[in-house]
Specification:
By secondary structure, the protein is an alpha/beta fold. The chain has helices spanning about 20-30, 50-55, 75-80, 90-100, 105-115, 125-130, 130-145, 170-180, 215-225, 255-265, 310-315, 330-340, 385-400; strands at about 5-10, 35-40, 85-90, 120, 145-150, 150-155, 160-165, 190-195, 200-205, 205-210, 230-235, 245-250, 270-275, 280, 300-305, 320-330, 345-350, 365, 370, 375, 380.
């Protein structure tokens, strides 16, 4: 990691993970960066400003109205100085302030004023992280282009176990290096990604669906766009914001997905099918809302939906890379291997959706990359990191063509 000449503003907020920011400051300084630290009032309760001043060789800023050492408006000066703005740890409070544009202390004022890329490393209690308000704030910030790393899962200082632990300084430093030296290894390539569930109508007000949130597919689309690809995202109904720079095609049913893929797949260099289409759909759709019956029983007849991945595989063109997902609850490797062959895929991403930290509507995943030659299992990782790992392997498959 070489950060010579890079200027990084590091915001530290009030949480026990603030001590890890000392390690991060040291790592960045050793890599050649100039690090300017802003501490909130609460952060000072955990780590002394003097510690950061010693590690960074720069004054640590804590007070919006302190007299600066030079005649400049300090929050504006730091905002302009930054090549990258990092907040680690980032509490639920600072995420809420950033999402709402609140500027009531030095850190929130400076990050609001900066035009530099922003990277945040959340750290908080699991309940706070999973709270709907926090998740909405996170999605808002991602839509505005804020980058996230973590939080990781594990044992927390409060005694809980779950998502909320700040990513390790080494991982944050790697993310900083990646943002300051962005990879553009997918430039010139067209990437098609599917994401989310489908909805199969029963009557005008009811449908059957599944628990897919679309987070994995959206993470892949965002990562591919950041790495220079032209990205088309075919998405079922989700609550997620479309990543910036990504062309989105909305679908509802599996039949819609099939039709969209028949249009867009032939032009794509890499096709990544992370959506969770329904395998069955009602044989008939009632024209009116179905009412309760006297005997309390309702029988519905279902038929199979089109096998979208198999259809895309059947029409695979030379040089094209096809990747699928196998979300399973049993016999994961056996089922994934069968799908790899049946659907003419170059790689399939297998995961057990019943495993803690994997599956639907969580921010982490545990996957195994399966090709005809090998199987490679990753540890529990944020879906954003899984996305880049997947794209790395997709590119290698592309280069073998």
């Amino acid at each position: 990691m070489n950060l010579d000449g890079k200027q990084i503003v590091l915001g530290v907020t009030g949480g026990i993970a603030a001590y890890k920011a000392c390690d991060l400051t040291s790592r960045l300084k050793k890599a050649g960066a100039q690090v300017y630290v802003i501490l909130t009032k609460n952060a000072c309760q955990f780590v002394s400003p003097l510690t950061f001043e010693t590690l960074s060789n720069h004054p640590a800023v804590t007070d919006t109205f302190a007299r600066p050492e030079t005649w400049e408006v300090e929050h504006v000066a730091l905002a302009k100085k930054a090549d990258l703005f990092v907040i680690a740890p980032a509490t639920a409070n600072i995420l809420a302030k950033m999402a709402c544009g609140i500027a009531d202390d030095m850190l929130s004022t400076t990050v609001l004023a900066t035009r530099a890329p922003v990277l945040v490393a959340p750290a908080m209690n699991t309940g706070m992280w999973e709270n709907a308000a926090t998740q909405r704030n996170v999605e808002t910030l991602k839509q505005r282009g804020v980058h996230f790393i973590g939080p990781d899962g594990g044992y927390l200082a409060c005694g809980d176990s779950g998502a909320g632990r700040m990513s390790e300084p080494a991982a944050i430093a790697e993310a900083i290096d990646a943002l300051l030296h962005p990879r553009r290894d997918l430039e010139g390539l067209s990437v098609l990604v599917t994401a989310g569930p489908t909805q199969e109508k029963i009557d005008p007000v009811r449908y059957i669906t599944n628990r897919s949130s679309g987070k994995m597919g959206y993470a892949i689309a965002r990562a591919a766009q950041m790495r220079g690809a032209r990205v088309t995202l075919v998405s079922g109904p989700t609550q997620l914001q479309t990543p910036q720079g990504v062309e989105k095609v909305d679908i509802v049913s599996t039949q819609d997905l099939y039709q969209a893929m028949m249009v867009h797949a032939p032009q794509a260099d890499i096709v990544i099918q992370a959506a969770a289409p329904a395998d069955f759909t009602p044989d008939t759709v009632a024209e009116q809302k179905i009412k309760k019956l006297g005997d309390g029983m309702l029988t519905l007849s279902f038929r199979q939906t089109p096998d979208v991945a198999a259809a895309v595989g059947k029409n695979k063109r030379p040089g094209q890379v096809l990747i699928g997902f196998a979300a399973e609850t049993n016999d994961v490797m056996k089922n994934a291997g069968a799908k790899l062959k049946k659907k003419n895929l170059d790689m399939i991403v297998a995961n057990d959706v019943t495993a803690p930290g994997a599956g639907f509507d969580v921010d982490t995943n545990i996957v195994t990359f399966v090709t005809a030659e090998k199987k490679e299992t990753l540890p529990c990782l944020p879906k954003t990191q899984v996305a880049d790992e997947l794209l790395d392997r997709a590119l290698k498959l592309m280069q073998k063509r």
